[in-house]
Amino acid sequence: MRKVSCIVLCFCVMMMSCISVFAESANGPDIRSASAILLDEEGSRVFYEKNADAKAYPASTTKIMTALLAVENLDSQAVLTASETAIDIDRDGSNIGLLNGEQMTVEQYLYALLVASANDAANVLAEAVAGDIASFVEKMNERAAELGMTGTHFVNAHGYHDENHYTTARDLSRLAIEVMKHDLIRQIVATGMYEIPPTNKYAEPRIMANNNSLVNPYRDHRYVYEGAAGIKTGHTSDAGSCLVSYAKRNGVGFFCVTLNAPVEYEGNYSFLDTIALFNHGFKNYSLKTISDINEIVSVREVKWAKGDEQVVLSAKAPLEVLLPKQYDNEKLTKEIFAEENIKAPVKKGDVLGRLIYSYDGQKVGSVDLVATKDVKRSFTKMVFSTLWGLIFNAWVITPLAIIVAILLLRRWAEIKRERKERERRRQESRRNFYR
Question: Which domain holds residue 309?
Answer without folding.
Answer: 292-377
